[in-house]
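Repro case for the chain-ordering regression, as requested:
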Amino acid sequence: MYPEILAHIKRYVQLQPHEEQLVCDMLELKKYKKKEFLLEPGKICQGNYFIIKGCIRQYFVNKKLNEQIIAFGLENWWIADQDSLLNKQPATSYIQTVEACEVLLLTEKNRIALFEQVPVMESYFRIMMQKAFVSSQRRIGFLFNMNDEERYRNFSKLYPGFMQRVPQYMLASYLGFTPQFLSRLRAKKV
Amino acid sequence: MYPEILAHIKRYVQLQPHEEQLVCDMLELKKYKKKEFLLEPGKICQGNYFIIKGCIRQYFVNKKLNEQIIAFGLENWWIADQDSLLNKQPATSYIQTVEACEVLLLTEKNRIALFEQVPVMESYFRIMMQKAFVSSQRRIGFLFNMNDEERYRNFSKLYPGFMQRVPQYMLASYLGFTPQFLSRLRAKKV
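-- result from build under test --
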């Protein structure tokens, strides 16, 4: 049994004891070292990953060969290339561990079987997708309405623990500015 | 019965004839004139709106009192303030018609009842949320990786019919640049 994910699911929907077992039976525990790849462009994303321990990033490599981070994942977050899953197409993003990680993989095949056996899991995933959509819409709002310094301050207020866990250049990539700008900001003792 | 929405739902999930009736029973047909508001900040979003006819925009007013458009909706698209719906909080966005519109409102109360009566509708909404999330992640990628002109060309290639239906200043707001820049681009016969 995986208590972390069961606790997370039960924040949103109710699970009967036998359903808890069914959920856990469908998950695969996987361990990765630091900087290992869970997904690379051209491959089909295997499923949704729930993070038990560690930190993961998702990024594109843009035309100028810069890494553009589009998502971070920490404990109790899901991460996947939803575009690849939804459209059954090769991924366009990398998913890579930032730290050594323990994750639970719910493959697409198992997800479909699980939704049949435990229909309330469909509600849980609908809510997860709705939350993900809301947060990416908020992020678009921040990109339009805040300057670089405001985005940095906002992010460090929202995720104080996180700031210590990722290298500066990754944080700069996520927030959309240069590592040099971030160093100057930090020197100001933001 | 509302054939447009039933056809849309059946692209993603299967509906039995009696379920089609249940879906339609839960929807309210609403007609709006041009520039009417479906939602304003401070009010709770009533539910999800499916557009049968017309064009709708969703926008924030930022600190500089500029309108920042975060979403457009056309025929066969859903529009709502998902943040307000998910968190049962007052909305922070405006939803307003750009043209005279006919929409189908699925109130939150009716959505919950409908998911109980027609569980496959939960799958349909999960897929809608997943699609919305994927497209907003793509949009974040465009904002980071394309300059203003590239974003304009990309948008006009993806939605050619749409360009004729909205005023230039709205398109500029959605794409994140000034109406003056858009006029110059169009003058170049993009």
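Ordering looks correct now. Residues 10 and 59 of chain A are 30 Å apart (CA to CA).
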